[in-house]
Amino acid sequence: MTDTSNMSAKELLGFYQEELYEEARRAKKEGKLVCWSASVAPSEFCVTMDIAMIYPETHAAGIGARKGALDVLEVADEKGYNVDTCSYARVNMGYMELLKQEALTGKTPEKLEKSPAARIPLPDLVITCNNICNTLLKWYENLAVELNIPLIIIDVPFNHTMPIPQYSKDYIAEQFKNAISQLEEICGKKFDYDKFLKVQEQTQRSVAQWNRIASLSSHKPSPLNGFDLFNYMALIVCARSRDYAEITFKKFADELEENLKNGIYAFKGNEQKRVTWEGIAVWPHLGHTFKGLKNLGNIMTGSAYPGLWNLSYTPGDMSSMAEAYTRIYINTCLDNKVKVLSDIISGGKCDGVIYHQNRSCKLMSFLNVETADILQKGNHLPYVSFDGDQTDPRNFSPAQFDTRIQALDEMMKQNKEGVSNE
Amino acid sequence: MFTMGIDIGSSSSKVVILEDGLNIIAAEVIQIGTGSTGPKRVLDEALSKSGLKLQDMAKIIATGYGRSSVEESHKQISEISCQAKGVFFLVPSAKTIIDIGGQDVKAIKLDSKGCVKQFFMNDKCAAGTGRFLDVMSRVLEVSLNEMAEYDSRATEPATVSSTCTVFAESEVISQLANGVAKENIIAGVHQSVASKACGLAYRCGVEEDIVMCGGVAKDLGVVRAISKELKKPVIVAPNPQTTAALGAAIFAFDEVIGANK
Ligand SMILES: Nc1ncnc2c1ncn2[C@@H]1O[C@H](COP(=O)(O)OP(=O)(O)O)[C@@H](O)[C@H]1O
Ligand code: SF4
Ligand SMILES: [Mg+2]
Fold first, then answer.
1. Whether the CB of B240 sits within 6 Å of ligand 1
2. Which positions, given as ranges, span the membrane (chain A) (predicted)?
3. A147 CB near ligand 2 (under 6 Å)
4. Contact between B219 and B147 (Cβ < 8 Å)
5. According to a count of CB atoms within 10 Å of the terminal CB, is the N or C end of chain A lower?
């Protein structure tokens, strides 16, 4: 076993991410089950059953960030996936296709060989949940059909009104039970409820440390650079039911608190304005978007997206767990979405808002116009939106982004200097 | 004291030289933009017309799509702020600005001091921009200068429903083939540009006075179509293609005298 006790949070992040992929590859070799999972599908059930997990959305984000998306997107294009389909889905369907070709022919396709992404094994089962979108239903259905493997669906209805009605929580809890019995059948063993409770408790400890990190951006100046959350997010997605996430996040939060105590801030002395970033990162252009803001002295201290994994609930209480997995802000009505974002903006003490009009993720984009309008009537903060895509590099124009954030910067400056009178 | 604003757009290069923040000494345009010889040529032209040298400039500010490649400039400011500054200088009653350039359309809302309150731009699509008009002018064999005149003779504007420039081009070609008069097609093209720009303006909240700028504001057919769509009068900024460069020159002046502090 590698000694991790002296590792920095950043080292732990890299180490555990690789470890998770290695575990999945090892499991495959040893004939154990590997499951591909949607990012906000409950992880607790599979972890209880000792199934090795792979998260295609995180994997796709990694391919995007390492500039390998175009190659696999082309494979999906050739298979007939429309360019309007979410690029996480297209990257993953393309990647799966390459893995499948390799499995069928024994030869590694050139695009797979060359891919900068971590190698992942094909799944033996897949699990999905529509609490963040319905694309995930068709996407996972296709995976199951293409690979002829079992599919577990956890159906989580959209919350058109808040608070969440009890019947909805009851229904989701039933969905959980159904998933458990499916797993018992697939694994050929009984579900261990004692272990499940421990896994739930672990999940809560991971989530608590995750929230600890996120809360640090409320300090002004901020010790936390919000873009770091986009990187650390990999573990709240892929390892929240394991101690890997808890250990890494605790380390990171400790480091940040220590920095705060010593007056070390994310932007040193250069934090001038604070922004909220609404939506997913633009992975293939992460550096460009981050540096563009940083050069203007703009730090991101608010983002609702990482908060999707603020999955706190009472271990042992299925109804409470159901609620955690359905109250995610993109699974709720406009009013609630506005409220969540409003808290993010004020919590981060932000001076302006940037909306990512994401060609991939309809759910996170179509309500932006309305959301921005409502929020501005309340907080009078300037905002801009830009066209982009989380993993398809063709849908983002750096120059257009630059113009918009420069204009936002000038508007925020105007507001701060009180030049504007309204 | 002289200051200079340089606006390098996607389609044209503009330079304004300002004396004491008040008098426009030169306002030059070359109809090619970033990455071309346009920026250098327009700079040379402005200097030779004014009889001034680069060293005479107390400050130079660049704006526009190609603002980061202007070596002569001391600073860059976004074209949104510069348009607002320039238009407000020329038309102090302006509240809503519609700027249509080579590859973007924007609507900008000003407060009573001329500060940008809000703005909206087109997404990654050339519909409703100058490029759209350039393509149509080529297909129709009518120069940009003549578009407004043709439009004024239209009897029954044709419908150009495709937003995509490429689809709209084939739509126009088939209308030509069907014998629809160019006048009517051009009026339809103008309406299509207007509807895109007005969509953005409505989002800003349209408040008078409404001022148009950017190269496309020279096409009075578009101005008429926008005015008709908004059911409000639209003022064309004097020398509308150079307003952002003018704004940059004013910013430069303000900075020199410390008015921004
Ligand atoms: N004389 C003219 N009459 C009508 N339209 C014109 C004329 N000159 C330029 N344009 C239009 O202006 C557009 C360029 O506008 P401009 O504001 O200079 O763009 P940018 O700032 O993006 O470079 C051209 O695409 C063209 O359609
Ligand atoms: S990015 Fe959006 S559309 Fe794609 S899987 Fe995630 S929630 Fe669904
Ligand atoms: Mg322009």
1. no
2. none
3. no
4. yes
5. N
Q: Measured between alpha carbons, how far is B174 from B250 in angstroms, rounded to an integer?
A: 47
Instruction: Express each pLDDT in A81-132 by its tens digit.
Output: 999 999 999 999 999 999 999 999 999 999 999 999 999 999 999 999 999 9
pLDDT tens digits, B161-173: 877 888 888 899 9
In this prediction, residue A418 has a pLDDT band, given cuts at 50, 70 and 90, of confident
Amino acid at position B146, single letter = E
Angle between helices A226-238 and A286-295 (to 10 degrees): 150
Q: Which of B144, B145, B192, B222 to mutate to test the pocket of ligand 1 (most atoms within 8 A of CB)?
A: B144
Cβ distance B117 to A420 less than 8 Å, yes or no, reads: yes
**Contact residues, chain B, for A404 at CB < 8 Å:** 121
> Residue B2: which of B15, B29, B13 has the closest Cα?
B15
Supply the ipTM of this predicted assembly. 0.85
| Residue A407 C-alpha, separation from nearest chain B C-alpha, in angstroms | 6
Helix H or strand E encompassing B256: helix B243-257
Mutate to test the pocket of ligand 1, among B42, B121, B189, B216 (most ligand atoms within 8 A of CB): B216
**Centre of ligand 1 from the C-alpha of residue B199, in Å:** 20
- Which residues from B are below 8 Å from A369, CB to CB? 203
- Looking at beta carbons, which pairs linking B166-170 to residues 24 or more positions away fall under 8 Å? B168/B127, B168/B132, B168/B135, B168/B136, B168/B192, B169/B135, B169/B136, B169/B139
- Subunit contact A357:B76, Cβ cutoff 8 A: no
Structural domains of chain A, with CATH: 9-191 (3.40.50.11890), 197-421 (3.40.50.11900)
How far apart CA A236 and CA A13 sit, in angstroms, is 11
Q: What phi and psi, each to the nearest 5 degrees, are found at residue A70?
A: -55, -45
The C-alpha atoms of residue B45 and residue B25 are separated, in whole angstroms, by 12
- Do residues B16 and B63 touch, judged by C-beta distance below 8 A? no
DSSP-based three-state secondary structure for A330? helix
Q: Domains plus CATH for chain B?
A: 1-91+238-261 (3.30.420.40), 93-236 (3.30.420.40)
Question: Residues of B near A (CB-CB distance < 8 A)?
Answer: 65, 68, 76-81, 111-113, 115-119, 121, 123-124, 203, 260
Q: Fill in the amino acid letter for B8.
A: I
What integer best gives the mean pLDDT of chain B?
Answer: 94
**Pair A135, A89: CB distance under 8 Å:** yes
Instruction: Locate the chain B residue with the closest alpha carbon to A396.
Output: B124
Sheet containing strand B57-63, edge to edge, reads B23-30, B13-19, B2-8, B57-63, B75-76
